[in-house]
Amino acid sequence: MASPVPVAAASSEPTTAQPAFRRGWLVKLGFPLAVAIAYGIHAALSHEEPALETRHYSIMLAGLGGLGLMAAVLQFFLGGLRRWMHDMWPILSAAVLLFAGLEVITTGLRLLPMPYFPSPPKILQSAIDDRVLIWESTYHSLFLLARGYLLGVLAGLVTGVCIGWFRTARYWGMPVMKIVGPIPATAWIPLALIVSPSATLSAIGLIAIAVWFPVTMLTSSGIANTRASYLDVAKTLGAKPSYLIFRVAIPAAMPNIFLGLFMGLGAAFLTLVVAETVGVKSGLGWYLGWSREWAEYGKVFAALGIMAIFFSTIMTGLFALRDRVLVWQKGTIKW
């Protein structure tokens, strides 16, 4: 009788096959290689372009290439940098190659009408030439956004908690919310310019209105939907009404509150740009409109790039705050 054939035990560890672009030397040298390709394209196409634009763009690419090579070496010693480059090098390389493709389309093939679509070196030169004005505009936009956003968040949290917790406040507050809330904040601009003594105060008020509605709605929804079991346990242990609000209902509503903060931040960005374009004579929105009136489209694209970095940085900071406050939700909810 033949002996039974031994069956190999299946491994309990999952096999995580990684894509080819995330293995081997590409993780370390993929980004410097992309920068080298962009530098070669720029060197081949920039013979007839202004010397100052070419020099500054070449310096920027050389700096990026140097940082890429330095990161490739440090990956052998720093595990955190190695993991970050493992995830980010495809995106970083694609961004560099995208700018190289734009240079081919604008400077090389001239497929896009000038001066509406300048080349990346011209955009960089515009940002360098106007760096002082761009910095002052960014500074004004930041403070205007911060004051309006904080005012709107504070008002939204107070009204949201009151509407969500107190039955009388809900009875009188919800109709007002349903009628006034859906009106876009930018629709209040004519009235704000008449009522407010200054354009800056009207802009702060408009941003606050834009933030107030989503924060109020989602805060009141989170408070009203607090699990009854949480409240019953707290009441059984002798909790007072103030304890139920601040230590039970508000912590339970934090995921909803952060949703309102994110929605309010997006609305605040939109209202900020519109308010600066219409009334306030400073800030990135004003700089964008001023550059367009003078047909300085290199400065227009430079302002758009600064806006992207500016808004993305603030959004990343809010994400970090959410991860810290809602650390107990890590792994249970994907945003």
Automatic annotation (TrEMBL):
Similarity comment: Belongs to the binding-protein-dependent transport system permease family.
Transmembrane segments annotated in the record for this chain: 25-45, 57-79, 91-112, 142-166, 257-280, 300-321
Topology in membrane: Multi-pass membrane protein
UniProt protein name: ABC transporter permease subunit
Superkingdom of the source species: Bacteria
Pfam family, one: BPD_transp_1
Subcellular location: Cell membrane
Keywords: Cell membrane, Membrane, Transmembrane, Transmembrane helix, Transport
CDD domains on file: TM_PBP2
Principal location: membrane
ABC transmembrane type-1 domain residues: 138-319
Signal peptide: none
